[in-house]
Batch of 2 targets.
Target 1
Amino acid sequence: MGELRLMKGNEVIAEAAIRCGCDGYFGYPITPQSEVMETLMEREPWNETGMVVLQAESEVASINMLYGAAGSGKKVMTSSSSPGISLMSEGISYIAGAELPCVIVNVQRGGPGLGTIQPSQADYFQSTKGGGHGDYRLIVLAPSSVQEMNDFVDLSFELAFKYRNPAMILTDGVIGQMMEKVELSDFKPRMSPNEIEKKYGSWATLGKPKNRGRNIITSLEMDSHRMEVNNRRFQEKYKQMEELEVRYEEIQCDDADYVLVAFGSSARICQKAVDIARNNGLKVGLLRPITLFPFPKKPIGELAKRVKGFLTVEMNAGQMVEDVQLAVAKTKCSVPVEYFGRMGGIVPTPLEVVEALKQKLIGG
Amino acid sequence: MQITDIINPENLVYEKPKLLTSNTMHYCPGCSHGVVHKLLAEVIEELGIQEKTIGVSPVGCGVFAYNYIDIDWQEAAHGRAPAVACGISRTNPDKVVFTYQGDGDLASIGTGEIMHACNRGDDFVVIFINNGIYGMTGGQMAPTTLLGQVTATTPCGRDAAMNGYPLKITELIAQLPGTSYVTRQSVHTPAAIRKCKKAIAKAFTSAQEKKGTAFVEVVSTCNMNWKLPPVEANQWMEENMFPFYPPGDMKDGSKHDIHPNNTVKS
């Protein structure tokens, strides 16, 4: 049993980073995630593990600091909230194009624009469909508890290095700000440059020894034929993620007539909604995508063969519902897929969810 | 006697620096980039730091610098090279890092990044090529374009009322306490080249000694976009650029020379 603590989601991100052997954090303050950097600065991990923590002058700078450090093979991360992630999108595209591993935490707030500092899930499209320019994907993990804020930091790094691709923890102000019991991970030592090279190959810019060619980190390729080869390699990688890395949780779906589909904090609300519905004699289950990219298309397709309808519950105007519709359409089953959500920083209540389920799918 | 008879080691008076690759440079004839690349290759070789040097190339004509100097490189997004270099040097304090940036990259789109890296005193070298024009995109106005200078986007000459004034960013950088050595050089004559090489070597030594950000501006020619033959471009630079961007050292110190008044009393 690891160390048990009562902590905020944002604080856990910081603690988990130190414990998993992260080499560096570069960030810029923005509500509702500033506790990540504040916790790191209080913990002073540079004295403990040698981890570098730096407050950058902007989100633009922090993501490019990540590019530089990741390009030298380091395990590095940043965190921000929606407007900050928009600023980082250029850098994220370059990181994806240069095939560098790193972890980006988005503690979402409502938009568009400056929007609100209250929680939201409106960056689903931005996170799962690319966000910046060019054909690329992020590995996107959506924690629905403070415990998963801890667990997904290490997992994100593992996946980021496995695929040499940026990974995003897509959470929101609810999970970031709420306190829960958490079992912290054990400490892992930071990896040395030699260990990194042994495990992941020699691509990092650590200075060119006489016995190898230059390592060059770049996303640029002027020859279109060679650029297309690069694009094909990226697509192949994303396809492999879709085959191997789909993660999801099914709650009471075995006998369900209706299935709620929700991620992150919405999934927590839906768990309560499932209980309320079942107390009212309705057989309702919940499918919780844990990876938003790759999206759990297959399990949704399987459920489509035997349920009467899906309701996605999202804190946005209906974004993930499109992916559920696609997954269902692929099965050629004519099962209705509906959406219910709140926006602007409003968190839906379980009763609202049950009401929406009755109205949109069951009737009456 | 044939010409080949005298090509032998005894008669060798000059050779290509070992760290300069054999790739054909894409730079236009007469451009200053090639000379500065050669100086960088010589300095890195002479200081014996090839195995721990990481270069950061910009967006602009220097984007392909990684094809020409035989070291590890990272290619940064437009203007972001100082942030990239900061990420490398902070997490690899034993390495020697430098950025290679043009005037559009450093003084326009990347003004924020260069100012803050220099103000933090990140221990890397900045090589700043200032030719007063955008080269790669085809001769548009740069932040350092002189008043009255004709470019693709100032066809009647840069007008202060419309475009503001040429930016003396190196003078601003020299004010920042995080910098160590700040200098302005050129490479248009053999004497200037020798001086510039000394300045680059000093900058690399200063960064290795963790004295702060070392900044070398090289006032350069872009004869292609200035639409001048190389020799006339050099003359134009002396007559027009030097009065506004005079060569010489602006600061020789260390980020550790701090002013006590910068710190709160309690």
Note: The first helix of chain A runs from residue 9 to 19.
Target 2
Amino acid sequence: MRYLIIIVGAVLVNNFVLNRFLGCCPFLGVSKKTETAIGMSGAVVFVMTIAAAVTWLIDHYLLAPFGLGYIHTLAFILVIASLVQFIDIAMKRFMPPLHAALGIFLPLITTNCAVLGVAELNCKNGTPFFESVLFSFAAALGFGLALVIFSGIREKLALADPPRCFRGVALALVTGGLLSLAFMGFSGLVKMPY
Amino acid sequence: MSPLVIAVLIIAALGAVAALALAVADKYLAVKEDPRIGLVTAALPGANCGGCGFAGCGDYARALVAGTAAAGSCTAADAKVNEEIAQILGVAATATEKRVALVKCCGTRSEAIRVGDYNGLADCASAAATAGGDKGCRFGCLGYGACAHVCPQNAIRIEDGLAIVDKRLCVGCGKCVAACPRKLIALVPAKATIHVLCNNPLRGPEVIKVCGVGCMGCHLCEKHVGKESNQFTFDRFLAQINYANPPTDAALVDKCPRKCIREDHHFETGH
């Protein structure tokens, strides 16, 4: 039950993009087509889950014993950036089809604030290993959900004829705001354990 | 040891380990690709338009090197590029004639009569499906930019209710040809300079009723160049350029009583 609450909490209640405003850059940048939005979501789920696991280990077994908790942001940036590069190389070698699908999105999220944000949150909340990874996975799913919904709306909006001053980014931001407003309806659905 | 030194050492060690891991991965996990793929990709125009039938230039280059694609399928490549690719692959160059899209309509808002007021989705297919669109002419350009939306080169713009192709940007991928619900965009040789900008095959009086610049099939253009020169063909009451043997006489533009024969510069940027 606790795990279910973590998942619902991360996907719907405290959605990363629409509630915490993390990862807004890909949210606006790659949301013009549903197809690319799905590719991006896949890459984010992949990277966020693995990054959370690795940063948790780094934090608990490398930084904490030396009392270096204050330096974790710097360490995380370093670790996540090289990890994504490593995944990119390894994926190209061992999983070419997956690389063809996610490859171009991987470098884009090397230092994505959602990826770094989830590591920071895990650190701040002091959650155990499995819960951290689960939370990160669910948070990435929430990011994907928001991205796919948003891109669907934007695809339809591309055919509309809005006033000139609203076209492009302005309308995208208004739409994002309304979507965030809609997700506010989930608040209070579950009580987050942390 | 002071905490400062420990912090520096730990971060430096982390960086060193990450760098080492990446270096090892780069060396031992690198995917061996045919070096010609990179060379061919670099030689191609890099428009990623998909005109060759592959998913972008890189994909086409891979197929070229593997020998599964015919050299010369790239519509955006000129003779020099084909020559270069042929040299890399060690095969004889096949020439492709550069072709560009042509919108066969010149019925601007002031010339073509609108029979209704359409304010639905700003999309040609949707407008065409709504009682045939707002334009009186059932064959002309609707001007909602379905072609401009799909153009990977941004070579098409809508001006005065009419799609206009910038010949210098167009790579001839043919996406607009497929996108147009009126089927009035065609790929024509880039070297042809004189075009009939009308797509309405109906008889004269019916064309005049809906458009100020529609072809009524008077054959004056054909008479000017001579029937035996075989530069024009006719589809019912519509003159068409025979692009296998296109006319070059600029005087044709003034001969057309309906002003729908135009010279190239009429649909280039900054005319």
Note: Residues 18 and 177 of chain A are 8 Å apart (CA to CA).
